[in-house]
Design a protein that fits this description.
ABC transporter involved in vitamin B12 uptake, BtuC; transmembrane; 15 helices; 336 residues; single chain; mainly alpha
């Protein structure tokens, strides 16, 4: 059951979550192998000095890294909410749509056979591969007289993921020079992007999450069951197609930008649901905020574990998420 039933309490959680996001952003920008004071962080935005090392580090490295963590964390969490609603499976996560495997396959394919090395190009190739894999999963999951089935779409996702992983391994055996380029997407990372690469993607992520929030009332109706939803006049097929496209877009964009980062889409929806309940009008925006906070914190942790080296952020989220997944499995997929 949700801990907060009163609307005022939920608004308080929203305000507190926004405050925590601001603090997490500050921590992501300030802390690392080279610690920057909060005063320098502030002046880097409002009184930039190109002669200041702190300001240059913030503008060229830390800011873009924090922004990537926010976008990827929020998008993965919202995609997880939508995935669990669409499949009605509490253990579902965006990777079920095969987006990770599809993105990695596209990168390995083009880096091996077409000698692609540009990070910008890899980003779009990853999104293309993720989209193709998601479309295949949705198509297979929709076959049959009953249309889209939660069980069928999970099985289709597992099959497509295994297929793309097998293709990827086969290509890497043929051309091992593609191994270095794929390691980044396999492990997951939010570093190495500059603002010129990230900023054009911000509107797409924001639009996707806004559309998800606008769809919240329809998702609430859909969760009451197909028969009831149809009785209330809902076009369930159209809603399921729209949710699938949003999942592919959000999850695919996340993989393209940050690589294969697991467990965010699984953990965050359950964490938020335990506090505010099943109303997606609250669940979606709070999941976006908590997903961003969680990935920002995971990124900061990754910088300190084996300093001066960094642990891939995908490893950190896996360490955090694996016990949570085991707990959910033992409880039958619920936290209530």
């Amino acid at each position: 059951m949700d801990l907060l039933n009163r609307r005022t309490s939920k608004w308080s959680v929203l305000a507190l979550s926004i405050a925590c996001l601001m603090l997490s952003l500050l921590g992501s920008i300030a802390y690392g192998q080279y610690v920057i004071s909060s005063k320098s962080v502030w002046t880097a935005f409002w009184a930039f000095d190109p002669q200041s090392i702190d300001h240059v580090i913030i503008r060229t490295t830390r800011l873009s890294r924090a922004l990537v963590a926010c976008l990827v964390g929020a998008a993965l969490a919202v995609a997880g909410v939508l995935m669990q609603a669409l499949t009605r499976n509490p253990l579902a996560s965006p990777s079920i749509f095969g987006v990770n495997a599809g993105a990695v396959f596209a990168i390995v394919l083009f880096s091996t056979f077409f000698s692609v090395t540009s990070l910008n190009t890899f980003l779009w190739l990853a999104f293309l591969g993720a989209s193709v894999a998601g479309a295949l999963v949705y198509g297979l999951g929709s076959l049959g007289k009953d249309g889209l089935s939660p069980v069928r779409i999970v099985l289709s996702g597992a099959a497509i993921s295994a297929l793309f992983m097998a293709f990827t391994q086969g290509i890497l055996v043929i051309g091992q020079e593609g191994l270095d380029s794929v390691l980044f997407w396999v492990a997951g990372s939010v570093s190495g992007r500059d603002l010129s690469m990230v900023m054009p993607l911000v509107p797409a992520f924001v639009i996707g999450m806004v559309l998800a929030m606008l769809a919240a009332p329809q998702i609430n109706i859909l969760l009451s069951g197909d028969d009831i939803a149809k009785g209330l006049g809902q076009n369930t097929v159209l809603i399921k197609v729209a949710l699938s496209l949003l999942i592919i877009g959000l999850a695919g964009g996340s993989v393209a930008l940050g690589g294969s980062i697991g467990f965010i889409g699984l953990m965050v929806p359950h964490m938020v649901r335990s506090v505010v309940g099943y109303d997606h009008k609250w669940l979606i925006p709070l999941s976006a905020l908590w997903g961003a906070i969680l990935l920002l914190c995971a990124d900061v942790i990754s910088r300190f574990v084996i300093m001066p080296e960094e642990v891939p952020i995908g490893v950190t989220t896996a360490i955090l998420g694996a016990p949570f997944f085991i707990y959910l499995a033992r409880k039958g997929g619920t936290r209530e």
